[in-house]
Amino acid sequence: MSSKDWLEKDFYAVLGVTKSAPADEIKKAYRKLARDLHPDRNPDNKEAEEKFKAASEAYDVLSDDKKRKEYDDMRSLFSAGNFRRGAGRPGAGGGQFDPNDLFNGFTGGATAGGGGADRRFGGTGFSDIFSSIFSGGGATGGPAGRRGPQRGRDVETEVTLDFAQAVRGTTLPLSLRTPGACDTCHGNGAKPGTTPRLCPKCQGSGLISSNQGSFSFSEPCRDCQGSGSIVDEKCPECRGTGGVTKTRTINVRFPAGVADGQRIRLSGRGEPGDRGGPAGDLYVQVKVRPDELFGRSGDDLTLTVPITLAEAVLGADLRVPTLDNPVTLRVPAGTPSGRKLRARGKGVARKEGQAGDLIVTVEVQIPSGVTGEAREALEQFAKLTPSAGRERLEARLRKTG
């Protein structure tokens, strides 16, 4: 993404949020747009596809705290109208500075470096921009004159796993519809049997420099659209663009213990790069379906099991399920409702090869409407058992009358 894009595009408007929106609101807005505009839900809908790309581009910047601050700083700087043509020369006049002149040739993708004064905007150093304006830097001398390989965009998708799949880990095929290199022309845009030729105007650099008094600016070559080459006979499949939207299937390994809301990064599995640049990354947002029996707390699984009054009083052997084989836990005599029992190693697998535990909470079920022999037995039980330990309460009641 170029620095000019950062200045011209309102990423907040694209996502439908305010400039002060917190990160969770930005994430929520993007995920809604991504679901509604995803190519799988809008096949052959070019407008939806473009909006989907724009939303992904906006989220890529606004979801990164560093990028977002740089983007906000940059737009605030230029919206203040501080830059005028000739601002670097004493006595210079002229109208409003044209940002198009400023950013022509700054296409991003440069390697970040330097000290604190060299702040990065869209992949181009802030100091690089001003050195080009005020020192007369040409199209071929500095970072602004290089149109090297461009890294592809990151891609984000969402996958829903069953509870057991998330706990144990699984490998699933994932189908994506994303831009990719055309298989017919292998990305060069030329009809099979032909090859692009070197652009005679820019000699393959993709940039044309122009001098305006003390200033020197570079801009993409109009003959080759900044690519450095000209396609005389266009590929019938991609119509000379070198790229098409295609469906691809990849196998994604989800590690054991992956949690709901976790974001998995697959390096180099995003959109292909431009001019031989590296591919972007694929980010998979994980959602986990809740289980009807089990819950999860970190690496431990949780389970609530009802027991009878007799089991709580007398004790019992309790057979409970796990995600593997059932286990038997001993309920000690006199167990109160809410007591937790532990089955070690029956929880979520850890990276070290161990596993969390299964935490079983027992709930004593009090029967209602007891009649007949059961009622008589309870009444006899009440006579034979000690009081419930309300001596202090009874003493206070006697004292207060």
UniProtKB/TrEMBL annotation:
<feature type="binding site">
    <location>
        <position position="182"/>
    </location>
    <ligand>
        <name>Zn(2+) 1</name>
    </ligand>
</feature>
<feature type="binding site">
    <location>
        <position position="235"/>
    </location>
    <ligand>
        <name>Zn(2+) 1</name>
    </ligand>
</feature>
<dbReference type="GO" id="GO:0005737">
    <property type="term" value="C:cytoplasm"/>
</dbReference>
<dbReference type="GO" id="GO:0008270">
    <property type="term" value="F:zinc ion binding"/>
</dbReference>
<dbReference type="GO" id="GO:0005524">
    <property type="term" value="F:ATP binding"/>
</dbReference>
<keyword id="KW-0677">Repeat</keyword>
<feature type="binding site">
    <location>
        <position position="221"/>
    </location>
    <ligand>
        <name>Zn(2+) 2</name>
    </ligand>
</feature>
<feature type="domain" description="CR-type">
    <location>
        <begin position="169"/>
        <end position="247"/>
    </location>
</feature>
<protein>
    <recommendedName>
        <fullName>Chaperone protein DnaJ</fullName>
    </recommendedName>
</protein>
<dbReference type="GO" id="GO:0051082">
    <property type="term" value="F:unfolded protein binding"/>
</dbReference>
<feature type="binding site">
    <location>
        <position position="199"/>
    </location>
    <ligand>
        <name>Zn(2+) 2</name>
    </ligand>
</feature>
<dbReference type="InterPro" id="IPR036410">
    <property type="entry name" value="HSP_DnaJ_Cys-rich_dom_sf"/>
</dbReference>
<comment type="similarity">
    <text>Belongs to the DnaJ family.</text>
</comment>
<dbReference type="InterPro" id="IPR012724">
    <property type="entry name" value="DnaJ"/>
</dbReference>
<feature type="repeat" description="CXXCXGXG motif">
    <location>
        <begin position="221"/>
        <end position="228"/>
    </location>
</feature>
<dbReference type="InterPro" id="IPR002939">
    <property type="entry name" value="DnaJ_C"/>
</dbReference>
<comment type="subunit">
    <text>Homodimer.</text>
</comment>
<dbReference type="GO" id="GO:0042026">
    <property type="term" value="P:protein refolding"/>
</dbReference>
<feature type="repeat" description="CXXCXGXG motif">
    <location>
        <begin position="199"/>
        <end position="206"/>
    </location>
</feature>
<keyword id="KW-0143">Chaperone</keyword>
<dbReference type="Pfam" id="PF00684">
    <property type="entry name" value="DnaJ_CXXCXGXG"/>
</dbReference>
<dbReference type="Pfam" id="PF00226">
    <property type="entry name" value="DnaJ"/>
</dbReference>
<keyword id="KW-0479">Metal-binding</keyword>
<dbReference type="Pfam" id="PF01556">
    <property type="entry name" value="DnaJ_C"/>
</dbReference>
<comment type="function">
    <text>Participates actively in the response to hyperosmotic and heat shock by preventing the aggregation of stress-denatured proteins and by disaggregating proteins, also in an autonomous, DnaK-independent fashion. Unfolded proteins bind initially to DnaJ; upon interaction with the DnaJ-bound protein, DnaK hydrolyzes its bound ATP, resulting in the formation of a stable complex. GrpE releases ADP from DnaK; ATP binding to DnaK triggers the release of the substrate protein, thus completing the reaction cycle.</text>
</comment>
<dbReference type="InterPro" id="IPR008971">
    <property type="entry name" value="HSP40/DnaJ_pept-bd"/>
</dbReference>
<feature type="domain" description="J">
    <location>
        <begin position="10"/>
        <end position="75"/>
    </location>
</feature>
<feature type="repeat" description="CXXCXGXG motif">
    <location>
        <begin position="235"/>
        <end position="242"/>
    </location>
</feature>
<feature type="binding site">
    <location>
        <position position="224"/>
    </location>
    <ligand>
        <name>Zn(2+) 2</name>
    </ligand>
</feature>
<dbReference type="GO" id="GO:0006260">
    <property type="term" value="P:DNA replication"/>
</dbReference>
<keyword id="KW-0963">Cytoplasm</keyword>
<feature type="repeat" description="CXXCXGXG motif">
    <location>
        <begin position="182"/>
        <end position="189"/>
    </location>
</feature>
<keyword id="KW-0862">Zinc</keyword>
<dbReference type="InterPro" id="IPR036869">
    <property type="entry name" value="J_dom_sf"/>
</dbReference>
<dbReference type="InterPro" id="IPR018253">
    <property type="entry name" value="DnaJ_domain_CS"/>
</dbReference>
<dbReference type="InterPro" id="IPR001305">
    <property type="entry name" value="HSP_DnaJ_Cys-rich_dom"/>
</dbReference>
<dbReference type="GO" id="GO:0031072">
    <property type="term" value="F:heat shock protein binding"/>
</dbReference>
<feature type="zinc finger region" description="CR-type">
    <location>
        <begin position="169"/>
        <end position="247"/>
    </location>
</feature>
<keyword id="KW-0863">Zinc-finger</keyword>
<keyword id="KW-0235">DNA replication</keyword>
<keyword id="KW-0346">Stress response</keyword>
<feature type="binding site">
    <location>
        <position position="238"/>
    </location>
    <ligand>
        <name>Zn(2+) 1</name>
    </ligand>
</feature>
